[in-house]
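Posting for a labmate who doesn't have an account.
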Amino acid sequence: MGFNPVEFIKNFKNIQSRMAEMQEKLKDLLIEGTAGGDMVKIQINGKMEVLSVYLSPDVVDPNDIEMLQDLIRAAYSDAFAKLREKMKEEFSGLTGGMDLPPGFLGT
């Protein structure tokens, strides 16, 4: 089923009130992204704020800062992808299974 703008507009009021509920629920959502075999972990919330960063002592090498930067970036990307998928699932329920327009959730 593709995105139907007429159907979306008809349901907009209902979606709008459920969206407020959804935003409240998402702020308490915790997602963890990992990289390097769990040597780097980043936890974000549904507002995409970084809540915590874990670095294994084994991954901290002053002679290889670039690797650590890559692992941190990879862990954040992993967390963000998981969050985006969770949001897609939640919004699918919110819209009654109706597809969202492309790019609606940054995808």
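Reply:
Got it, the structure tokens are right above this. The radius of gyration is 18 Å.
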